[in-house]
Amino acid sequence: MAEKLLEIRKLTVGFVTDKGLVKATDEISLSIGQGQTVCLVGESGSGKSVTSLAVMRLIDYAGGVIADGSIQYHGQDLTVKSQEEMRHIRGNRIAMIFQDPMSSLNPVFTVGEQIAESLRLHQDMSGDKAWNAAVDMLRMVGIPAPEIRAKQYPHELSGGMCQRVVIAIALACKPELLIADEPTTALDVTVQAQILDLLRKLQSELGMSILLITHDMGVAAEMADRVAVMYAGAIVEEGPVEEIFSHPSHPYTIGLLQSIPGFEGERGRELYTIQGTIPPIGQLPTGCRFNPRCPHAMDICREKEPFDFLVGEDHRAACWLFEDRPVALVDGRCGRDEVKRA
């Protein structure tokens, strides 16, 4: 098993409102090994982006707070570090690709200057050296004529090129961990395939770990070593990618997979949809948070939140359908708070 680079332990992130703290994530636990790709999947509103912002400690600037839990990076708890300390980690050791490349880039600076800025800030490079390194980064991410493109502004580039520029900025300082928040959402399928190939190639060359956030199960199948399925602020299933796709256990995971066109090999069948919508944060149902949409909901599902049960080797699912299975342990402890569920 790969050595743990990042370990999230029972992380609760919320937003303070006039009604108190509203939880966006609820005691989630997740680990990423050296050189490993972990995919965090789920519908919009599940808490995936909030999790990534918490790891980067950018949630502080978005009005959010880390209410409980820890984020261990090389044994250091990022939740207790000051923003000044985090500035030496962000961009340098942990980098992030944000969802929309056009809104991530500054329209008044050339793309070369935006890459060079990261190198000057974190690597203490001089002006010319940083600029040349920025051009090299554009070449590395597959942008043709990088010397010319480096002098252009974001609006002069296509969406696919802007995404490559954002990747170049994120990778400029050769981080150990790359957080990619739906890096292919706004791209057509051809460019999406190119970006995913690029990430795999760069991961192999740099030996970095990737936390890939997506709502596309096809992307997860193609990229992941492990998959964590998130719903309404909680991880409801987690395990090796082969286990998740060959033996999906939680009804939500099964629904996501059945929603993929042609997943079961039946052409012409009506596309499966999960009934209902994800509940707003602060308005979660009693018991299992998926029970109003679940076709297998039982009385206990409406009364008590389920434990994380062990449903396979290194494979856990939070569902009362597996009540006869052992409770899964995360770092030697129950995957969730037993007292809360009693």
From TrEMBL:
It is a peripheral membrane protein. The keyword Translocase applies. Transmembrane segments: none annotated. The keyword Membrane applies. It catalyses: Ni(2+)(out) + ATP + H2O = Ni(2+)(in) + ADP + phosphate + H(+). CDD domains: ABC_NikE_OppD_transporters. It holds the Pfam family oligo_HPY. NCBIfam families: oligo_HPY. This is Nickel import system ATP-binding protein NikD.
